[in-house]
Design brief:
With about 250 residues, this protein is α/β, with parallel strands linked by helices. The chain has eight helices and seven strands, in the order βααβαβαβαββαβαα. A seven-stranded mixed β-sheet has the order 3-2-1-4-6-5-7, with helices on both faces. A hairpin with a 5-residue loop joins strand 5 (about 140-145) and strand 6. The longest helix is centred in the first third of the chain and has 19 residues, at about 35-55. It is globular and about 45 Å long. The model is unreliable at about 1-5 and about 235-245 (pLDDT under 50).
Length: about 250
C-alpha cells in the first residue's frame, strides 16, 4: 500500500508586513502616540493578522521586510499561537514593493493555484472578504480589495500577471487606478472597500469597529487600545459570537 502524503492546500495566503522596529512602523501616528506606543500597536496588529489569517482554509506565508531571517523566525515564534496552522516565514526580496510582491507570489504559487496577498495594516478586515477573494478567483484572473485612500488591502491572482506589480508609484493615492488601467475590465473583480490604519482618523475608525464582536476579533489590538485609553467598550470575541457576523 502506498503511504498517504499530506496534500498542500490549493489556496495560498501571503501576509506582507514590515518587521516591527522602533521608529519605523506607523510613523504617521507618532505625533499623537509616540514611537514606542506605535511599535506596540503595530506588533499587536501584526500578531492579530497572523491569527486571523490562520482562520482561513489555506497555506499561510508571512513575508517580512526590514530584518534578517533570524529576526523573522524569532518574531514568528513570539506572535504565533502554538495551536495555529504552520506559518511559513520568508523575507521580502526586491527593489520595490511591486518586485517584492511578485517574488512572493511566484514562490507561493509553486504549491497553490490561487494566491492572495494581504497587508498587516487592516486588522479588522472581514474574513469573508478574504474567503470571497479565493472564491472569485475561480472565475477571474485577478481580485483586488480597494482601500479608501486609493490603494488596496488585498490582491489575489489565479495565474501569473507580473504587469500588475510593475511601474506602480507605490505609496500614492493612485495605486489602485495605476493597477487597473493595465487590465481589461473582465480581468479583475473588486471586493468591498475597506481601510488601512495610517493616521488618527483611521485609528478612530478602528476603535468604532472594535466596539462590536466579529469573527477573528483582533484581541491584542483591542487590548492595547483599551490600555491606551482609546477603547472603552467591553467587546471581546468568542466562538459563539461569530454566527451571522463578518
Amino acid at each position: 500500500m502506498t503511504a498517504l502524503t499530506r496534500r498542500e492546500p490549493s489556496n495560498g495566503l501571503i501576509l506582507f508586513a514590515r518587521y516591527p522596529r522602533l521608529g519605523q512602523v506607523k510613523t504617521r501616528l507618532e505625533p499623537s502616540l509616540g514611537a514606542q506606543r506605535c511599535l506596540v500597536l503595530y506588533e499587536a496588529m501584526l500578531a492579530d493578522c497572523v491569527e486571523r489569517c490562520s482562520l482561513v482554509d489555506c497555506s499561510l506565508h508571512l513575508y517580512l521586510h526590514g530584518c534578517d531571517l533570524a529576526e523573522a523566525q524569532e518574531l514568528a515564534t513570539r506572535i504565533q499561537e502554538p495551536a495555529a496552522p504552520e506559518l511559513r516565514v520568508r523575507l521580502q526580496e526586491g527593489a520595490d514593493l511591486g518586485e517584492r510582491m511578485w517574488k512572493a507570489y511566484t514562490e507561493a504559487s509553486r504549491c497553490s493555484s490561487k494566491v492572495v496577498i494581504v497587508g498587516s495594516d487592516s486588522p479588522s478586515v472581514p474574513l469573508r472578504f478574504i474567503r470571497s477573494a479565493f472564491d472569485r478567483l475561480e472565475d477571474h484572473p485577478i481580485v483586488i480589495g480597494p482601500v479608501d485612500d486609493g490603494g488596496y488591502y488585498l490582491i489575489g491572482l489565479s495565474g501569473p500577471r507580473k504587469e500588475v506589480f510593475q511601474g506602480i508609484r507605490w505609496g500614492t493615492s493612485s495605486v489602485l487606478s495605476q493597477t487597473t488601467v493595465k487590465l481589461a475590465r473582465s480581468d479583475y473583480e473588486l471586493l468591498p472597500e475597506w481601510y488601512d490604519i495610517d493616521n488618527s482618523e483611521d485609528l478612530d475608525h478602528l476603535v468604532r469597529d472594535l466596539s462590536q464582536n466579529f469573527e477573528g476579533y483582533p484581541a491584542r489590538t483591542a487590548e492595547y487600545l483599551r490600555e491606551a485609553g482609546l477603547l472603552f467598550s467591553n467587546a471581546s470575541y468568542s466562538e459563539s459570537d461569530s454566527a451571522g457576523q463578518c
